[in-house]
Amino acid sequence: MKTMKIFSAALIIILTSSILPAQDQKPANVDAAPPNIALFVHQDVFPGKAVDREKLEIDFSRAFDHLEIPRFWIDLEPLTGPQEALVFSLFDSYEQLGQSNADWSQFLASRPDLGHEQEQIDGLLSSQRKIVTVRRDDLGYLAESIDLSEARFVNVLEVHLFPGREDDFADAFKILADAYGKIHADGPWVVYQVDVGTPAPTFLVLRPMSEIKQNDDLLSWNAKLTEAEGDQSAEALKKITRESFASTESNLYAVKPEMSHVSKSFAATDPDFWFHRAAPEMKSESKPESKPDPKPTVSRPKK
To answer: Left, alpha or beta for 177 (phi > 0: left; psi -120 to 50: alpha)?
Structure first.
């Protein structure tokens, strides 16, 4: 049955890859659970300035690891799609987001050195786009098992809808979650609805991965997922994507701990990864080793 071929290719990739038979899982770190409110910042760097930005971000992150300020972020660098960095900040509520912004401005004003470094980073960006999102618990799958501190890669599906089609998106993901449950899949995702920052209704679907090879299960599990949905559900999905989805884009990002700043409780699952990280070393031209001049050969007269 080829019904899912009509369904968005991006949606297939993010929702049918990395599916493994459900297994017993250790309790997730609640302090590393997907936040209620997430701020996503897309940063586009001027050509040729990516290395400069990376060096500044690493210095910035290391400085904040030694300071007490409740503002945390995870830096995601693109492996596919536009070469935009994605900075993911975590908040419990809008109140915490607002207080964090106020504390941030006050803190940078009290630390001119870091304030200047922030200005340097901003000066390397050709554009910056911010969106505030709210977690949709009714649309995720096994989202309560997600431990963001264990993520090394994140697949992000961005879905733009036609106006007034939010309920259709919700129906589509409820169908998919039901299908996942039927095949006892272990491929969790969490859904965020954009609340501020986009002109059209937009949803983000995040699928954290501990290893990039989790994408290899796409082909082997595709047929089972299609079979589990049934003809009626598959037809409903086709209709929703055709009539409700204006556009979709799926991209893969790598987590960059050396450019991130997280709390100690967040990193408790794997503090070595988050805090004892080594920044990528800049390659320099290696100079040839100086060798001693060879000793002159003395020719002896033959007897």
So the answer is: alpha
